[in-house]
Amino acid sequence: MTTGVEPAVGEWLAAHVSGLVPPLTFALVSGGRSNLTYRVTDATGTVRALRRPPTGGVLSTAHDMSREWRFQTALAPTPVPVPEPLAYCADTSVTGAEFYVMDFVEGTVGADRDAVRDWPRSARRRAGTSLVEVLADLHRIDPLAAGLGDMARPRGYVERQLHRWQRQVHRSGAPDLELLDAVHDALLARVPEQRSGIVHGDFRPGNLSFGPDGTVVAVFDWELATLGDPLADLGWLVSTWEQPGDTVPPTTAGPSTASGFCDRAELVDTYAKLSGLDVSDLPYYVAFSRWRSACIGSGVAARFAAGVMGENELPVEELRRQVLHQSEAAHDAVRDLDDR
After folding, report:
1. What tens digit of pLDDT does each residue of 63-111 get?
2. Which terminal residue of the chain, N or C, has fewer Cβ atoms less than 10 Å from its own Cβ?
3. d(CA 325, CA 333)
4. What is the span of the domain harbouring residue 262?
């Protein structure tokens, strides 16, 4: 939060958040290429969280704050643990972008092995079970009953996603897209029959907060949420769930190689039992997840190479190497579909 907008934000919060007592202090909790989260502490020591888009270098179709707010508001009364939504600001003159405020949920975000280093094995075990329980709870919710029926689109979820990420990676200026294009075409030709449910879009430990015993206490980052086939969430989770000895890289880093976490097969088996869903099409959604990850990574590398994303901890060539490995993994996964 830049110093220049803090007074205006403080005035807006004081007028719209019940019980908030100025003056306020702001501290960035998480940032980067995702939406920004700020810890907002008032004069009584009460903490809330404020979410807003990044300040630059983002795609025009990304970082939809109203979407996050809509899904969190709809899910607040359900068994899915989300921070209580408190207020939404559509007036972009306050900070330069829309934003919303929610309760601040204390817990540990399962971003990587370091995050769970001090957990006992029992907490790691519970974390794997708990996150699957939450995912099954999410996928059991009727979108119409939750007031989200109008979020549906004419085309199927997979077709929409293939079109969206294909378009974005080509607009990013990324080079050497032949392999990604080939995987796109193969996925499009093999789209399975789809169900409809609420899809988080980025369900993984890094977007969950866990209590001391490993139980999920909050699900964050609903910016990609939509209606679609629930197996898309499971496919993404599985693609991130790294195991010791893996030769295929995960789509994104996580804590799952730490001792105590269940393996992928147990994760899927538990989900199938809790959700009651047929998971036979899961390999398709894993292949799709690897392709989507490669599209995202390719676009990010292109923007860093163009100098519009600031500094990055990895050289552009290393980013491109990771994208190539994920692209090859997606290609292998989609080829394996024909051997099933």
Report:
1. 579 999 999 999 999 999 999 999 999 999 998 889 999 999 999 999 9
2. C
3. 12
4. 108-339
Residues 64 and 150 in one domain: no
CB 85 within 8 A of CB 100: yes
Judgement on whether residues 73 and 49 belong to the same structural domain of the protein: yes
Would you state the structure tokens that stand for residue 23, as one six-digit string? 């003056």
Whether the pLDDT of residue 140 is over 80: the answer is yes
Is the distance from CB of 292 to CB of 180 less than 8 angstroms?
Answer: no
Report the C-alpha gap between 162 and 165 in whole angstroms. Answer: 6
Does 20 share its domain with 158?
A: no
> Residue 158: is its pLDDT beyond 70?
yes
Last residue of a domain, one of 80, 103, 126: 103
Minimal CA–CA distance to 130: which of 231, 204, 216, 208? 216
Which among 214, 217, 215, 219 is positioned nearest to 204, based on CA atoms?
A: 219
Q: Is 67 exposed, middle or buried (0-12, 13-18, 19+ CB in 10 A)?
A: middle
Do 219 and 272 lie in a common domain?
yes
In the 8-state DSSP scheme, what is residue 36? E
The pLDDT tens digits for 191-237 are: 999 999 999 999 999 999 999 999 999 999 999 999 999 999 999 99
The pLDDT value given to residue 220:
94
Distance from chain centroid for Cα 302? 21
Residue-wise pLDDT for 166-200, tens only, equals: 999 998 888 889 999 999 999 999 999 999 999 99
Q: Are residues 252 and 224 in the same domain?
A: yes
The full length of the chain comes to: 340
Q: Which of these, 194, 252, 188, lies nearest to 227 by C-alpha position?
A: 194
